[in-house]
Amino acid sequence: MKCGLFLLVVCLNTFFVNAYFEVVVPDSQHALDLNLFEEVLDPELCDEHNKYIANDTFLLFKFFDAGTRTPRGILTGNTQDLGNYYQCLGIKQEIPNSVIEGKYCMISLPLEQNIQLPDLPDLPDILSQALPAWELIHSNRRVNDKVVKSLNEYNALKTGVDVVFGGLGNKSLGRSTDVGFLSALSLNLAICLPKVCSANNALDTFVNITDLGFHYEERFCRLPNDKPWVAGDYVAIAIFSLIGLLSILSTAYDVRYNIFLQKDPKKVNKLYQSFSVYNNTNRLLTITPVPGAIECLDGIRSFAMMWVIIGHTFSTQIGSGIVANQLEIFEWMMSLEAVWLMAAPITVDTFFLLTGLLVVYTTYGKVTPIKLLKNLHLFYLNRIFRILPVLCAMILLQVSFLNWVVDGPFWEAKMGHVHHCRVYWWSTILHIQNFLNPSGMCLSPSWYLAIDMQLYILSPIVLVWVLTGKRLIAWTALLVSLIAVLSGATVFNFQNNFPFSPVTPSRPPEDIIYYMEYYYTNTLTRASPFFVGLIFGYLLSIYREKTNVLNWVTAGILWFVSGFIILGTIFITYPFMQFDWDNLLIDNLVNSFMRPVWAAGVGCLIFVCAHGYGGIVNWILSLKMFKILGRLSYAMYIVHYPLMLLLFLADFSLALMVAFLMTIFVDLPCSVLVKHFMGGSIKTPPEDKQKSIEKESQQVTSVKI
């Protein structure tokens, strides 16, 4: 049995490692109308418009005022100026035979230009402050080497931060030109042009840039009404309208039955009541004690979720480039004070641990191996249908509503997510996007769901042995599976020499995407915390009904081990963030064993708290407010990243509110439908059927994330 199980896991690992596909993303589902940008270009009409603008001082000023200025704080890392997006697109003036409209473009302008620019033409005095600092280029002076080096180093670090916290999905943005990793040596400037002109046509109005050898790259352009309606918009409107209608009808039925008629609640039609906002809100906010529940899990899940959102908030601010003192932030990121934030990616392994733990804890002693195998389809379907509604709803929001309600100069960086969701919605629903399209994920954080589901599908291979009730067989299956996964991951890591993390300044930026695709979102390299969770789930299960499992000495040792591991895993990030770090052996060892060790540290914390030695820590983690956050954690994980428009508190509050609505209108109604049509999935003993809604909510939601 040992040999067979080991070989099976190794074979599956080999498949997962080599199962990557190359997929070309078509432009047919792009967030913007790509044909429109080509159709509006008209060189002859452009010359006519340019001549008219040159003779109209006020209109000329409108274009310059909405366009380029020299970025403030170049020497502290600010290399872009955004102009005024809405002012530019709002320019519209009728002239004989046509209409002059504005077009917003972003260009990348290298700081060093081997040219001699002539004097600029005479322009009104009001334009003197609107034009870029041509002297910076015209003087042929070279930017200080130290500043250039710092800008390059910062850009590499910023790229890593952006990718690790969800920017992988922006690798391909479709229409924009990739300026590579030299963007730190370039000014990214907004220019406002007549709609019918290309950047070359417009700039040639002032100086013949082609003959002078003036170099720049056009990154993207935006036009008024350049977002086309697609089939996904109509599907989203139809489905959300249907959900709204069902919610109104179901709530009306529920209120009439329970409040106005005051009939017996036990005789209410559960199917008619499934979409009731009144009932679902009560279900979400009702907290009742449940015998045998691990109370600290909701607190751990809530703190882990807050850590994720803090990290994503920081990364979106840095990745956007709106911060003027970026070099100072770069220095802070490498300091000891920032290790807690730079270590934030490890928190996702907490979710893998909880999934594995609850897979065993919620089935051990209730289901036999034979019953599990006979009802394996229900084991999978219950999980799939519990995750699918919120995921599908968020995909629809991403492909449609979020594309329309948000816009601006930074939307070019976010439209990739819309594009990817329109093309890869199906691979997201099937939970295979981490293999099929790892560089074009719909809903960037959903890579976790893909791995989580894949591990859940594999879990019966181990679970069937654990449920036998024979400890030797159970421990053999648990340890062999963990050793197999660790062995496969270690070999794979030493073969590829991945950096410690994508935010590793000593490693070249080219390693970032490779790391993200083949390590960070790889099922094999991320699986070990799940199998550690299986072990702790088994430990908690076999000692569930027993008292005096621990004494103060043992509890103290476990507390020390847990604290040492958790703090050590966080602070170990610091040396890897330094430029002089260069040790492939340590990189490979840490990549292979840090994540299961972190899971073991959190598992020790859970074990101590579950057996009465948690003290004030267990009291905090068991607070009732965390139970509500725990129930919302899955929806928050799915919705928070696309909704990041403000800083952390706004992100957290907005994600909380949207997650609340998503849970009330989608998740809880669908849970009733699943229970109604599937008969409660795998049957449990009669005494377990009387458990309150609290236990149902904790188990189902906890397994999901």
TrEMBL record:
Cleavable signal peptide: 1-19
Membrane-spanning intervals of the chain: 234-253, 304-327, 339-364, 384-406, 447-467, 472-492, 524-543, 555-577, 597-621, 628-648, 654-674
InterPro entries: Acyl_transf_3_dom, Nose-resist-to-fluoxetine_N, O2_lipid_transport_reg
Region (Disordered): 684-705
Compositional bias per record (Basic and acidic residues), positions renumbered to this chain: 685-697
Protein's UniProt name: Nose resistant-to-fluoxetine protein N-terminal domain-containing protein
Pfam families: Acyl_transf_3 (PF01757), NRF (PF20146)
Domain of life: Eukaryota
Organism: Arctia plantaginis
Record-annotated Nose resistant-to-fluoxetine protein N-terminal domain positions: 43-223
GO molecular function: acyltransferase activity, transferring groups other than amino-acyl groups
Keywords: Membrane, Signal, Transmembrane, Transmembrane helix
